[in-house]
Amino acid sequence: MTPDAETPAPQRDLLRFITCGSVDDGKSTLIGRLLHDLGAVPEDQLASILNADGQPDFSRLVDGLLAEREQGITIDVAYRYFSTETRSFIVADTPGHEQYTRNMATGASTADAAVILVDARKGMLTQTRRHAHILALMGVRRVILAVTKMDLTDWSAGTFDRIATEFDGYARQIGLEARAIPLSGATGENVVARGGADWFNGPTLIEALEKLPVVTTDPDQAFRLPVQGVVRPDQDLRAYTGLIASGTVRPGDAVRAVPSGVVSQVARLLAPEGDRDAAIAGQSVMLTLTDEIDLSRGDVLCAAADPLEAADQFEATVIWMDEAPLLPGRQYDLKLGARTVAASVTDIRHKVNVNSLEALAARTLELNDIGVCHLSLGGDVAFAPYETNRQLGGFILIDRISRTTVGAGMIRFALRRAHNIHRQSIRVDRARRAALKGQEPAVLWFTGLSGAGKSTIANLVEEQLAAEGRHTYLIDGDNLRHGLSRDLGFTDADRVENIRRAAEAARMMADAGLIVLVCLISPFRAERDMAREMMGDIRFLEVFVDAPLAVAEGRDVKGLYAKARRGELTNFTGIDSPYEAPPKPDVLIPAERMPPAEAARAVLQRLRQP
Q1: Rounded to whole angstroms, how far apart are CA atoms 253 and 112?
Q2: What's the CA gap between 522 and 516, in Å, rounded?
Q3: Phi-psi region of 559 (alpha: psi -120 to 50; beta: other; left: phi over 0)
Q4: β-bridge partners, 405
Q5: Taking the model in full, what pTM does it have?
Q6: Gyration radius of the chain's alpha carbons
Q7: Is 522 noted as a catalytic residue in this protein?
Q8: What is the distance between the alpha carbons of residues 323 and 319, in angstroms, rounded to a whole number?
Q9: CA nearest to 574, candidates 414, 462, 450
Q10: Per the residue annotation, which of 22, 28, 264, 522 is the catalytic one?
Q11: Exposed site from 206, 354, 392, 558, fewest CB < 10 Å?
């Protein structure tokens, strides 16, 4: 959600800040009281927020956020604009519920400062620490600690000092600069006007906000323009649009496109009122170049003498925001600026205990976990470390099936192997290898429950292909577990890695010109889609051997279902681990009704079709 705000007065600077903290700490009430006491609320709106007792409920002033919470609607971020005589403000109010931590991260990504609320009766909670840690990761260094509901503690100086001291110690550990203020959103003390705590000599909330410095861009930084669009203002003119992330650009400046590395010069800076002489960081711009170069959405134009780095492997801090855990090896879409590429986490270095800041070993990241991870991307992207430039170092991870945002991350640095490892050109290619064998390479991916009959059907298919003189190889899940995947268990994360290894092996074998048959339960749709994508232009057929659970369990010659039912096997597909059936397989085998020989003929018939 973007701020729905009137244009701030030009003579005032603008401070963007976020309110955050645990649920029911009084964020909406505090913002409502602040707006009310500054006279920023129309009279007709005041009449609409009275509760049943005729008293104002200030939380209702914050864009209907309270009503959305009551209705159980997914909450984004509520923005409000207000001003004082000396400064303009945009405040982002974010919910404190743990399941909405993603919205807090969204608000923090554009904030200059933060107000963290702590209920004086409860003190610091895990969510307080989590929000503070996310602020530090997002580069929001200046924080006001609002110890709220002090009126309900009789303005206890001891209570305030204890909370302020505890938070200050935590803030110093993570690099935050914090100032604590005792206040009450309900009664208004120390929000705009002083009151309540005669022992407190510090500023009110609004005074502290007015004194916070605004984050400004260094004008001497090198020019960077993430390209958001390629347009043609007229038939003979090609222009590039985007928001300048840093630096200044003028006609005649030499620029380099990253990651391609092509150099050109800025010809014109276009604007509705006419050509411009210059544009600076924070401004949207449309520019033309002196050369027609290969430049598209997601590329970055940089100062030619000081270009960005480009890489496809990074170490990054990731905030996980989804109910389903992050699984190393699973492919997600990574969006960095205007560029979207496939990405997977190759290694979780550790996750952070937000209470103790201890680094903990982890195989996965769960909802609201914060971890340091290594990522591998499907192609080079231009980037800057997040601490240098938020726009060029911050990314989101998107689930490839649901298209929901599941994580946010901050790039720390490119991995050295990203620079040292390059693809080696090979003279004998797949086409030549396939020609020697007189066949078209392909991958037949058999999926279904344990006991569905995958291996039986695949063996029959391979036997017939061998009888016809075809060159084949069958990768069976059980055999794979005895060799290439002998180090893996059966957790979701291990299953994802097992499928990745099988798919990589199948891709190399098909590149050698073989027809490869893969028999794996492969229960997750995301990994089967990943396997298909990994093949590129190699023919890939997904064969779904569809056996109802009762039928598969009745064929349980290995006794695995029985063990799973007794609790002796965990993470067993169909019992305590899900199977996601293919919605549109290339070949559907109704195993309950189709004998294996007939099923094999159906697979071969589909393989022989163009």
Answers
A1: 31
A2: 16
A3: left
A4: 398
A5: 0.76
A6: 29
A7: yes
A8: 12
A9: 450
A10: 522
A11: 558
